[in-house]
Amino acid sequence: MSTLLSQSAAVIKMNIQSLPRRLWMSLAMVFASAVVVAILLAFLAMSKGFEATMESAGSDNVAFFIRTGSAAELNSSAGRDQVNLIENSPGIKRDEQGPMVSPELYVIVDGIKKSTQQEANLPLRGLDQRGVNMRKGFTLVAGRMFNPGTDELIVGAGVVSQFDGFELGQEIRFGKNTWKVVGVFSTGGNVFESELWADAKVIQNLYNRGSSYQSVRAVMESPDSLGAINEYLKSEPRLTHEAQAESSYFAEQGKSLSYMAIFGWVISSIMALGALAGALNTMYTSVSDRAMEIATLRAIGFSSFSAFIGTMAEAMTLAVVGSLVGSLAAFIFFDGLSTSTLGGSFTQVVFSFSLTPELFTKGISMALVIGFISGFFPAWRAARVPVIVAFQSGR
Question: Where's the ABC3 transporter permease C-terminal domain (predicted)?
């Protein structure tokens, strides 16, 4: 056993040292693996970043009410009388001002993307100070809070970074209405930073919404209160709403871009087939180039297994180098890259690409699969070619 291991180690060392003789073909294999890994990680980082942006907005202790059957709050509605009924629900926390409930509006307005100079949908949310206080991590990074009853609004930091004309002090026209940006806020990088916030009653008046809202948020006494709240909703015939934890709602919304991960795997798999063809050619050439060396080692007592292991090690080494190059490229060009895309409510969500150790592992695994397959068959050939044939092919 020790002899077999020492022979394999010697062949591996010899194969790695001979790589400069096949420099360009080896680099081609490294490059192909790197491209596959980089493309895969780019798509996975996009999907992961969007999902994290959505999920981090939700709280387990906040109940989110929308009309039963609505996929998003844009499709929901709640009248003032229904909001009053929700406020009487058991399990909702109360303070000196009464039930901690925030009825909110969700209106779509236009913004101009900095990257394309094209119009895109942005959410204008109507709420009050109680609703603002329910957003975990909320901080004003510039300016001040809007004054109730005025045409003032505050803008998420994500909107400022990705869209034109929303800087502090700017006046913005939506239809016939002109708004003034009096503040810029952050909520820790989650989906709320993709929104514009203004006083709910002003938006009701300007958009002819009467006394209606679209969604309701409520701070619960505890996460376990959700069951009692839903029982109350079922027992009250005037309510056509369902409640879920805010964290659950946003987790489901975050899955709307999961197709990007699937698309990334499909594209990378197709590219991997091309990379595999090139890698097989590289490894077969490597075996042919070292035919004399393989024959000599076999003649002096080295086993066919050592020739197999040496060729496999060469292929896996090139694949690992390719995966590291691809991972580094993905990290440099994509990690933290900020962009925006259409979310579940047909409005833009600003998010950042997020590369995690889990994703790097997936990228490296893809490269190792390419390395294993591309090395196995040439290694099998190296192990089984008769010594005399190997000498003849080396002449």
Answer: 266-386
Residue-range definition of the domain harbouring residue 278:
2-55+256-394
Please give, one letter per residue, the 3-state secondary structure of 73-128.
Answer: HHHCCECHHHHHHHHCCCCECEECCEECEEEEEEEEEEEEECCCCCEEEEEEEEEC
Let me know: does 103 contact 200? Beta carbons within 8 Å. Answer: yes
Residue 19 neighbours by CB under 8 Å, 6+ apart: 26, 314, 318
> What is the tally of structural domains in the chain?
2
Amino acid letter, residue 380: W
- The length of the chain in residues reads 395
Write out the H or E segment, with its range, that includes residue 280. helix 259-289
**Shared domain check, 283 and 199:** no
Q: Kindly state whether residue 37 falls inside one of the protein's structural domains.
A: yes
- Judging by DSSP bridges, how do beta strands 101-113 and 215-219 pair with one another? antiparallel
Chain segment 249-298, per-residue pLDDT in tens: 888 887 766 677 788 888 888 888 888 888 888 888 877 776 666 666 66
How far apart CA 211 and CA 190 sit, in angstroms, is 29
With beta carbons less than 8 A apart as the criterion, state whether 211 and 204 touch.
yes
Residues 161 and 260 in one domain: no
**Tens-place pLDDT, residues 12-63:** 777 677 777 777 788 888 898 999 999 999 999 988 888 888 888 889 999 9
Residue in this structure with the two tokens 């969700």, named with its chain if needed: 106
Regarding whether 204 and 108 lie in a shared domain, the answer is: yes
Confidence band, pLDDT 50/70/90 cuts, at residue 395 = very low
Report residue 394's pLDDT band, with 50, 70 and 90 as the boundaries: very low
